[in-house]
From TrEMBL:
PROSITE patterns named among the record's database cross-references: ABC_TRANSPORTER_1, ABC_TRANSPORTER_2
Gene Ontology terms describing biological process: L-amino acid transport
Keywords of this entry: Amino-acid transport, ATP-binding, Nucleotide-binding, Transport
Name of the molecule in the record: ABC transporter ATP-binding protein
Domain ABC transporter: 6-235
Length: 241
Protein backbone atom coordinates (compact mmCIF):
# COMPACT_ATOMS: atom_id res chain seq x y z
CA UNK A 1 0.00 0.00 0.00
CA UNK A 2 1.40 3.37 -1.05
CA UNK A 3 2.22 6.00 1.55
CA UNK A 4 0.52 8.53 -0.76
CA UNK A 5 -3.27 8.54 -0.36
CA UNK A 6 -4.12 11.40 -2.72
CA UNK A 7 -2.26 12.52 -5.81
CA UNK A 8 -2.92 15.39 -8.22
CA UNK A 9 -1.06 15.55 -11.52
CA UNK A 10 -1.18 18.58 -13.85
CA UNK A 11 -4.64 19.66 -12.69
CA UNK A 12 -6.23 22.55 -14.61
CA UNK A 13 -9.58 23.94 -13.42
CA UNK A 14 -11.69 26.82 -14.71
CA UNK A 15 -14.42 28.79 -12.98
CA UNK A 16 -16.53 30.26 -15.74
CA UNK A 17 -14.21 32.07 -18.12
CA UNK A 18 -11.38 32.19 -15.58
CA UNK A 19 -8.53 29.67 -15.61
CA UNK A 20 -7.81 29.22 -11.88
CA UNK A 21 -5.58 26.16 -11.56
CA UNK A 22 -2.64 26.04 -13.96
CA UNK A 23 -1.23 22.55 -13.55
CA UNK A 24 -1.39 21.63 -9.85
CA UNK A 25 0.86 18.77 -8.75
CA UNK A 26 0.27 17.65 -5.17
CA UNK A 27 0.74 14.54 -3.03
CA UNK A 28 -0.99 13.97 0.30
CA UNK A 29 0.66 11.30 2.50
CA UNK A 30 -1.55 8.78 4.25
CA UNK A 31 -2.23 9.32 7.96
CA UNK A 32 -0.69 12.80 8.10
CA UNK A 33 -1.74 16.45 7.91
CA UNK A 34 -0.81 18.44 4.82
CA UNK A 35 -1.26 22.21 5.01
CA UNK A 36 -2.13 24.01 1.78
CA UNK A 37 -0.76 27.53 2.12
CA UNK A 38 -0.40 30.66 0.00
CA UNK A 39 -1.65 34.15 -0.65
CA UNK A 40 -5.36 34.91 -1.07
CA UNK A 41 -6.43 33.99 -4.57
CA UNK A 42 -3.64 31.46 -5.07
CA UNK A 43 -6.10 28.65 -5.86
CA UNK A 44 -6.26 26.79 -2.54
CA UNK A 45 -10.04 26.62 -2.18
CA UNK A 46 -10.42 25.77 -5.87
CA UNK A 47 -8.00 22.89 -5.35
CA UNK A 48 -10.13 21.45 -2.52
CA UNK A 49 -13.32 21.89 -4.54
CA UNK A 50 -11.70 20.20 -7.53
CA UNK A 51 -10.62 17.21 -5.40
CA UNK A 52 -14.19 16.96 -4.06
CA UNK A 53 -15.64 16.88 -7.58
CA UNK A 54 -17.50 20.17 -7.22
CA UNK A 55 -15.35 21.81 -9.91
CA UNK A 56 -14.33 19.20 -12.48
CA UNK A 57 -10.88 19.78 -13.97
CA UNK A 58 -10.55 19.99 -17.74
CA UNK A 59 -7.08 18.47 -17.69
CA UNK A 60 -4.96 16.30 -15.40
CA UNK A 61 -5.56 13.32 -13.12
CA UNK A 62 -6.57 12.87 -9.50
CA UNK A 63 -6.05 9.49 -7.84
CA UNK A 64 -7.20 8.24 -4.44
CA UNK A 65 -5.32 5.19 -3.20
CA UNK A 66 -4.03 4.78 -6.75
CA UNK A 67 -7.52 4.70 -8.32
CA UNK A 68 -8.53 7.53 -10.69
CA UNK A 69 -11.36 9.71 -9.36
CA UNK A 70 -10.99 12.68 -11.71
CA UNK A 71 -14.30 12.08 -13.49
CA UNK A 72 -16.40 11.40 -10.38
CA UNK A 73 -18.96 13.90 -9.10
CA UNK A 74 -19.03 15.10 -5.50
CA UNK A 75 -21.59 12.52 -4.35
CA UNK A 76 -19.43 9.67 -5.66
CA UNK A 77 -16.30 11.24 -4.17
CA UNK A 78 -18.06 11.35 -0.79
CA UNK A 79 -18.88 7.65 -1.14
CA UNK A 80 -15.17 7.04 -1.63
CA UNK A 81 -14.68 8.26 1.95
CA UNK A 82 -13.79 11.90 1.33
CA UNK A 83 -15.33 14.71 3.41
CA UNK A 84 -15.16 18.45 2.77
CA UNK A 85 -15.46 21.08 5.50
CA UNK A 86 -16.07 24.14 3.30
CA UNK A 87 -15.07 27.69 4.12
CA UNK A 88 -18.77 28.68 4.26
CA UNK A 89 -19.40 25.79 6.73
CA UNK A 90 -22.08 24.13 4.56
CA UNK A 91 -24.56 23.39 7.34
CA UNK A 92 -28.34 23.20 6.97
CA UNK A 93 -29.55 26.21 8.93
CA UNK A 94 -33.23 25.15 9.07
CA UNK A 95 -32.41 21.71 10.48
CA UNK A 96 -31.45 20.92 14.05
CA UNK A 97 -27.91 20.12 15.10
CA UNK A 98 -29.00 16.50 15.49
CA UNK A 99 -30.49 16.39 11.98
CA UNK A 100 -27.32 17.90 10.50
CA UNK A 101 -25.23 15.19 12.13
CA UNK A 102 -27.57 12.37 11.08
CA UNK A 103 -27.54 13.57 7.47
CA UNK A 104 -23.73 13.56 7.49
CA UNK A 105 -23.50 10.02 8.82
CA UNK A 106 -22.86 7.68 5.90
CA UNK A 107 -23.93 4.48 7.65
CA UNK A 108 -27.28 5.25 9.24
CA UNK A 109 -27.62 6.53 12.83
CA UNK A 110 -24.36 7.93 14.22
CA UNK A 111 -22.11 5.59 16.17
CA UNK A 112 -22.65 6.34 19.85
CA UNK A 113 -18.97 6.20 20.80
CA UNK A 114 -18.04 8.52 17.95
CA UNK A 115 -20.88 10.86 18.88
CA UNK A 116 -19.65 11.00 22.48
CA UNK A 117 -16.17 11.90 21.24
CA UNK A 118 -17.69 14.76 19.26
CA UNK A 119 -19.62 15.96 22.32
CA UNK A 120 -16.41 15.84 24.34
CA UNK A 121 -14.61 17.88 21.69
CA UNK A 122 -17.51 20.30 21.16
CA UNK A 123 -19.70 20.46 24.31
CA UNK A 124 -21.86 23.21 22.77
CA UNK A 125 -23.23 20.72 20.26
CA UNK A 126 -24.65 18.58 23.07
CA UNK A 127 -26.19 21.70 24.64
CA UNK A 128 -27.87 22.77 21.38
CA UNK A 129 -28.53 19.25 20.06
CA UNK A 130 -32.25 19.85 19.46
CA UNK A 131 -31.85 23.50 18.41
CA UNK A 132 -31.83 24.79 14.84
CA UNK A 133 -28.34 25.11 13.41
CA UNK A 134 -29.13 28.57 12.07
CA UNK A 135 -29.39 29.93 15.61
CA UNK A 136 -25.84 28.90 16.56
CA UNK A 137 -23.03 31.42 16.85
CA UNK A 138 -20.38 31.54 14.11
CA UNK A 139 -17.97 29.48 16.18
CA UNK A 140 -20.62 26.89 17.03
CA UNK A 141 -21.54 26.58 13.35
CA UNK A 142 -17.90 25.91 12.53
CA UNK A 143 -17.81 23.25 15.26
CA UNK A 144 -20.89 21.65 13.70
CA UNK A 145 -19.31 21.77 10.24
CA UNK A 146 -16.21 19.95 11.50
CA UNK A 147 -18.31 17.51 13.53
CA UNK A 148 -20.33 16.61 10.41
CA UNK A 149 -17.11 15.50 8.73
CA UNK A 150 -15.93 13.63 11.83
CA UNK A 151 -19.13 11.70 12.57
CA UNK A 152 -18.12 8.95 10.13
CA UNK A 153 -14.55 7.77 9.74
CA UNK A 154 -13.24 9.04 6.39
CA UNK A 155 -10.26 8.17 4.25
CA UNK A 156 -9.56 11.86 3.62
CA UNK A 157 -10.67 15.10 5.26
CA UNK A 158 -10.54 18.31 3.20
CA UNK A 159 -10.79 21.30 5.55
CA UNK A 160 -10.97 24.89 4.28
CA UNK A 161 -9.84 27.61 6.71
CA UNK A 162 -11.60 26.27 9.84
CA UNK A 163 -10.34 29.11 12.07
CA UNK A 164 -11.29 32.00 9.78
CA UNK A 165 -12.95 34.84 11.68
CA UNK A 166 -13.22 32.93 14.96
CA UNK A 167 -12.31 34.09 18.46
CA UNK A 168 -9.09 32.62 19.93
CA UNK A 169 -10.99 30.45 22.43
CA UNK A 170 -13.01 28.84 19.63
CA UNK A 171 -9.85 28.34 17.56
CA UNK A 172 -8.28 26.58 20.53
CA UNK A 173 -11.29 24.24 20.78
CA UNK A 174 -11.12 23.46 17.07
CA UNK A 175 -7.37 22.92 17.23
CA UNK A 176 -7.77 20.38 20.03
CA UNK A 177 -10.39 18.45 18.06
CA UNK A 178 -8.20 18.44 14.94
CA UNK A 179 -5.19 17.26 16.95
CA UNK A 180 -7.27 14.36 18.24
CA UNK A 181 -8.41 13.54 14.71
CA UNK A 182 -4.77 13.60 13.61
CA UNK A 183 -3.72 11.39 16.55
CA UNK A 184 -6.32 8.84 15.45
CA UNK A 185 -4.45 8.50 12.14
CA UNK A 186 -6.63 10.64 9.90
CA UNK A 187 -5.38 11.95 6.57
CA UNK A 188 -6.09 15.68 6.34
CA UNK A 189 -5.53 18.29 3.64
CA UNK A 190 -6.20 21.69 5.18
CA UNK A 191 -6.18 25.27 3.96
CA UNK A 192 -5.33 27.59 6.84
CA UNK A 193 -4.26 31.24 7.16
CA UNK A 194 -3.65 30.98 10.92
CA UNK A 195 0.03 30.05 10.78
CA UNK A 196 0.25 29.19 14.47
CA UNK A 197 -2.39 26.54 13.86
CA UNK A 198 -0.72 25.44 10.62
CA UNK A 199 2.61 24.93 12.39
CA UNK A 200 1.01 23.11 15.30
CA UNK A 201 -0.94 20.63 13.15
CA UNK A 202 0.96 20.27 9.90
CA UNK A 203 3.33 17.45 9.03
CA UNK A 204 3.77 18.63 5.47
CA UNK A 205 3.12 21.87 3.60
CA UNK A 206 2.43 22.78 0.01
CA UNK A 207 2.58 26.46 -0.96
CA UNK A 208 0.48 27.69 -3.88
CA UNK A 209 0.80 30.79 -6.03
CA UNK A 210 -0.99 31.69 -9.25
CA UNK A 211 -2.77 28.37 -9.48
CA UNK A 212 0.28 26.14 -9.00
CA UNK A 213 2.14 24.45 -6.16
CA UNK A 214 5.47 26.28 -6.04
CA UNK A 215 6.99 24.50 -3.02
CA UNK A 216 6.30 21.32 -1.05
CA UNK A 217 8.11 19.79 1.89
CA UNK A 218 8.04 19.24 5.65
CA UNK A 219 6.04 21.83 7.59
CA UNK A 220 8.92 22.05 10.07
CA UNK A 221 11.29 23.11 7.27
CA UNK A 222 9.02 25.94 6.19
CA UNK A 223 8.28 27.02 9.78
CA UNK A 224 11.99 27.24 10.60
CA UNK A 225 12.95 29.40 7.62
CA UNK A 226 11.52 32.97 7.63
CA UNK A 227 13.44 33.81 4.45
CA UNK A 228 11.79 30.90 2.63
CA UNK A 229 8.39 31.93 3.97
CA UNK A 230 8.87 35.48 2.75
CA UNK A 231 10.06 34.36 -0.67
CA UNK A 232 7.12 31.99 -1.14
CA UNK A 233 4.30 33.99 0.44
CA UNK A 234 5.56 37.52 0.89
CA UNK A 235 5.48 37.25 4.67
CA UNK A 236 7.06 35.47 7.59
CA UNK A 237 5.09 32.88 9.51
CA UNK A 238 6.66 34.30 12.64
CA UNK A 239 4.77 37.53 12.04
CA UNK A 240 1.56 35.55 12.52
CA UNK A 241 2.65 33.22 15.34
Amino acid sequence: MSDILLSLRDIHTDIGQYHILHGVDLEVPRGQVTMLLGRNGAGKTTTLRTIMGILPPHRGEITLDGAPVTALNSALIARQGVALVPEDMGIFANLTVEENIILASLNGPPDRDRLERIFTAFPALRTFWKGRAGTLSGGQKQMLSVARAMITERRLYLIDEPSKGLAPAIVSTLAKALRELKAAGATILMVEQNFRLAKALGDHAAVMDNGRVIWAGPMATLAADPELQSRLMGLSLEDHA
